[in-house]
Amino acid sequence: MAQKCSSSKVSVVSVKKWEDVKKVEEVEDCFILEFDPSKINNHDHHTHDDHTDDDDDDDDDDDIKIIGSVVCVKKREDVKIVEEFEDCFILDFNPYEEQSSIGLHFSKLCVSVKTEVVSDDDDVSVLAVTGQVACRDYPHSRHLCAMHPFKSTPHEVYCKMCYCYVCDVSAPCKKWTEGCKDPSLKHCDATPDVSLWRTRRDRKKLRKEARLQ
Predict the structure, then answer these.
(1) DSSP one-letter code for 99
(2) Which segments carry the region annotation Disordered (predicted)?
(3) N or C: which end of the chain has fewer CB within 10 A?
(4) 126-148 burial, b for 16+ CB within 10 Å, e for fewer?
(5) CB within 8 Å of 139: residues ≥ 6 apart
(6) Cis? peptide before 172, omega within 30° of 0
(7) Quick one: three-class SS letters along 161-196?
(8) pLDDT tens profile 135-147
């Protein structure tokens, strides 16, 4: 049976029976287990045919003990809340697979190959990050954005590092979603693969250089 455990700050569901876990998981991201899940699992795999007498049943019952309440946290954003009233809890996700506040995926970190600059005798190892980091953490044209792939996401969408290929300014530019003379010529669609966009980019550069002279 599942019950609500209330406090002044937060309300957490308490699950006392293994068979209620699935139901609670559908509506709650964080809940308390009032039993040892590992021992309940082992017990559930036994059938009545496996028991030869009542003594065996008693032995199995002795293996099931309440060890106290254990909180299961499913979302990273709930960790801080649970930490306020629980010293020990279960993470139902891999924290190392989550993206850090600076955009790094810890699972993609690796030790860089030793070079002449960093020899085997050095105490410092260079860490490298695999993946399209340059097109995520540094300024890049919209069509190269790793966060919003050009082929699978709307071209109007952009990240904070995207810039207009034609205007060479941070996205969005003035013609990002609608061209002046031709509304269909949106700068968010610009790529170097199309000669029209290459020509317009070159013209923009020449105008900027002329103004600077």
Answers:
(1) B
(2) 38-59
(3) C
(4) eeebeeeeebbbeebbbbbbbbb
(5) 161, 162, 163, 170
(6) yes
(7) CEECCCCCCECCCCCCCCCCCCCCCCHHHCCCCCHH
(8) 667 788 999 888 8
Residue 15 makes CB contacts below 8 A (sequence gap 6+) with 2, 21, 24, 31, 32, 33, 34
Measure the CA–CA gap between 6 and 49, rounded to whole angstroms: 42
Radius of gyration, alpha carbons of the chain: 29
Q: How many CB atoms are closer than 10 A to CB 42?
A: 13
Could you identify the residue written with the tokens 């209330």?
Answer: 6
Please check the confidence at residue 185 and state whether its pLDDT lies above 70: yes
Q: Tokens standing for 188? A: 């968010």
Name the strand (E) or helix (H) holding 86.
none
pLDDT at residue 65, rounded to an integer: 44
SS3 (DSSP) at 100: coil
pLDDT tens, position by position, 49-99: 444 445 555 554 444 444 456 677 777 777 777 777 776 777 776 665 545
Residue type, 13: V
Q: Give the single-character DSSP code of 198.
A: H
Helix residue ranges per DSSP H, the chain: 21-27, 37-44, 54-63, 79-83, 134-137, 195-212
- For residue 121, what pLDDT is reported? 53
Within 8 A by CB and 6+ apart from 112, the residues are 118, 125, 126, 127, 128
65 φ, ψ (degrees, to nearest 5) = -130, 145
